């Protein structure tokens, strides 16, 4: 099958949905000149009213999308870097996320927020390296975090078609990923995780760009130590595929969560709590979390590496839960 | 008296203002009686602004309102009974008891909702206006906000968006001189409308106690917007008779004097308009009394309706968060 990069898959999703549904529009900073490529060609194809370059006014363009959606459009709002969402937090958290419930369901809010280059690309320091999805899940946004080009296209199309606000996390380290992507329109359903590698000894729950790292560690441990590691990718963080997670963990009884958000109240905390509540009797070893440290990312590459979750930490954690005995 | 106002509309404006006045006087009573949970922000004194603006709109035009929003909703045609039901937290309320005073909305009337965050409705109005413009529909979006909102960044960002994209938006700034207890003069330099001028839009100041003047000014702005002439800004100078919110009169506040309040009451928008109607032979004093009686009956019926309709079931507390729920989403507070 044809191979596309993650960014090309996003671009194809945008193009195909915009061609199919004329209520879909996209707005944000530098959309028309989009240097990374995910918005390439959209302006030429769909024109001024549907492809808008905004001023640097994150709060206003986020609220603008809310109003456009309430009036019947289906906007995609693109944030250049994840931490820009904080500038728009009132419009996201107080307005868009709460609106449907506060209105008693009078109106739907079909907005997709694309958060580009989420996480670190190396050397971007404190304000350009966040993975803000725990905040957004907490606020009640549906959040997808694809790890492959295939999922990027399928989840994007589904996100745009949802009647509720959905956040699409485009992890910086996933953008170069290349994989098989069908040419036709297809969707990946929200709330369905996927076993990326089957195993019987330990489940690794890996989020977003950490999925390929987890797969590499799993392969290596299989060869070196004969440990059979299952790698499970939630793909959607809200709604979360609890049944899929429990199926894997009930089989293996051992779990390591590999997630690049803060240790305290990060996404791994929630997964860990779900397992504590629903898989207690299946667990053979304590749950382990490999996460980011609770500080803003430092600039220096060695300091940065010291606070990010690493394959080496993952490997140690897998070995530790594998060899854990209750004695 | 406005030159462009049909007599029938001039009479209706009085009834609309009186309905807002009586509605919010009743609200104060009901808050005191603990029949309305939380607190409300009464609109009394500012009626000419909501009615003057909304009388220049059609049902298809939309508005975004403020925390002090009862007047806007009523002026746009909101149903008294459904509003009281919402304030009582009932299922038959506009928002099914999920929103209350600060979020009342009626999408069938183009009311995109009151808002508890100062200035937050301005960009939302711009988004709706973009839809109208892109679809070639002749409708406009009105964003109401107070003098306090003029110092919110998002309002300025929204005015800029409306200006650069020539959106059919009318920014209506209700200047009641106080942001809660903070006087406008302490936090703002220049007249409010002068700020909007810097975005290159038509911007003007009007007597917000004169419903005819507000109507005329809005009418021109709406005509300009419908013709593709872009956004406008209208500063309406007005005054609120009650405190910032319903609880304030139980406190000993000193941020404004009784003398100041009394001075403004001499320019009451209802008395002013009744006098104009009678002087212009548009209606008689008896007609006005009859309109008042009808409104009072509506208010009484609305309260009666709201008190009798059922409360929502706590079992349904998670409804309306999403269009369709996924398994375990939204999650319950206790284990599912």
How does this structure look, described?
The complex is a heterodimer of chains A (327) and B (336). Chain A has 327 residues and is α/β, with parallel strands linked by helices. Helix content of chain A is 38%, strand content 20%. Chain A has eleven helices and 14 strands. Chain A has helices spanning 6-20, 42-46, 58-70, 89-102, 133-139, 149-161, 210-225, 242-252, 267-278, 301-307, 311-322, and strands at 3-5, 24-28, 51-53, 74-79, 112-118, 142-144, 166-171, 178-180, 194-197, 202-206, 229-233, 236-238, 255-262, 288-292. In chain A, the strands form three sheets. Chain A has a seven-stranded mixed sheet with strand order 3-2-4-5-7-6-12, with helices on both faces. In chain A, strands 9-11-10-13-14 form a five-stranded mixed sheet, with helices on both faces. Chain A has a two-stranded antiparallel sheet with strand order 1-8. Chain A starts with a strand and ends in a 5-residue tail after the last helix. In chain A, 57% of the residues are buried. Chain B is of the alpha/beta class and 336 residues long. A five-stranded parallel sheet of chain B has the order 1-2-3-7-6, with helices on both faces. In chain B, α6 links the parallel β2 (141-146) and β3. The longest helix of chain B is centred in the N-terminal third of the chain and has 26 residues, at 7-32. Chains A and B meet through α3 and α4 of A and α5 and α6 of B.
What proportion strand of chain B? Answer: 5-15%
Compute the gyration radius of chain A: what is it?
20 Å
Secondary structure tally, helices of chain B: 12
- Work out the helix count of chain A: 11
Concise account of the structure shown:
With 327 residues, chain A is α/β, with parallel strands linked by helices.
Helices and strands in order:
The complex is a heterodimer of chains A (327) and B (336).
Chain A (H helix, E strand, L loop, with lengths): L2 E3 H15 L3 E5 L13 H5 L4 E3 L4 H13 L3 E6 L9 H14 L9 E7 L14 H7 L2 E3 L4 H13 L4 E6 L6 E3 L13 E4 L4 E5 L3 H16 L3 E5 L2 E3 L3 H11 L2 E8 L4 H12 L9 E5 L8 H7 L3 H12 L5
Parallel strand pairs in A: 2-3, 2-4, 4-5, 5-7, 6-7, 10-11, 10-13, 13-14
Antiparallel strand pairs in A: 1-8, 6-12, 9-11
Helix pairs in contact in A: 1-6, 3-4, 7-11
Chain B lengths: L6 H26 L14 H8 L7 E3 L5 H6 L4 H8 L33 H14 L6 E6 L6 H12 L4 E7 L2 E2 L2 E2 H4 L4 H6 L4 E6 L3 H16 L5 E6 L20 H8 L3 H11 L5 H24 L28
Parallel strand pairs in B: 1-2, 2-3, 3-7, 6-7
Antiparallel strand pairs in B: 4-5
Helix pairs in contact in B: 1-2, 1-11, 1-12, 2-9, 4-12, 5-6
